[in-house]
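WARN retry 2 of 3 for item q-0093 after timeout on previous attempt; input resubmitted unchanged.
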Amino acid sequence: MIDWLIFLPACFALNLAFGPNNLLAMTHGAASGVVFAQKAALGRLAVFVPMIAISAFGLGIILTTSAFVFNAVKIVGAAYLIWLGVSLWRSAATLRPTASGAADRTLLGATRAEAAVAVGNPKAILIFAAFFPQFVAVDAYWQSYALLGAAFLLMEAVAICAYATLGKVASRYAARKLSAMQRVSGAMMCVFGVLLLVSPAPTRS
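OK item q-0093 returned
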């Protein structure tokens, strides 16, 4: 039986943890609105679904046991985060709060960015491979894994809304500073990329 009293608060803390994807949701919320950010974040959720399935099938162990695979994934992910950070910084000079019609034209790009950040960070699948199994009911493995995954995705959606709202509220109180906020987001994305690049591979038992 799943221990929901422990899983839910612990998992939600992971959902709310400040990282590249949540920073991206906050940036999208500030520039284009909460609804836009939530739509774009569907790219992230779409990536997490197969990640959860991979972990359920036991393939997630590859990242936790193979230093080579882990390093390859994190280098690609770190490079993308740094590239995205530089792009955010450079686009700050022409940033303006967009109207809904203009936002729709860039939604595909924002969705792709969310998906790429999610898939390029091996820590996500490590959460599914190392955190989820602690709560799986052995006598109902597939059902419990599906329930855990569904709960994670639901709380992730709540976290996305929270960060997007935070970004939108911040932009309203500092509309003239939107370009500065964009530069800060770009710089922080580069920092996340560097931190990911130097993060050690998981300890092998």
